[in-house]
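Re: beginner question about structure tokens

> Can someone show what the tokenized structure looks like for a real chain? I only ever see the sequence side.

Sure, here's an example I had lying around. Input first:
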Amino acid sequence: MTEGQAGQEAACDLCRGGELFDLFGHDREGHRVTFALARERISIIDQLKSMSEEELLKVRGIGAVGLSLIRERLKEGGGLNETLHQRQVQ
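And the corresponding structure tokens:
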């Protein structure tokens, strides 16, 4: 384990932890999605919830699998933005 932000222990040795890492998990797919979002300076759930599916799919490294993970985790946490959930990508 490594030390995360503000003296808290991070959940794994590959990341410093944080809101999105905790949401998506500390496995390969969770890290891939979180690092892709971080490259776009998206680091908190509120930023993520404000994005449409179309915007998320434009983020390099998200794709259909990542979008599915985002939908699933936001829905589980009760934070699913209805716009994100209902908007269809054409």
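Each token stands for a local structural state, so reading them left to right follows the chain. The two ends are 43 Å apart (CA to CA).
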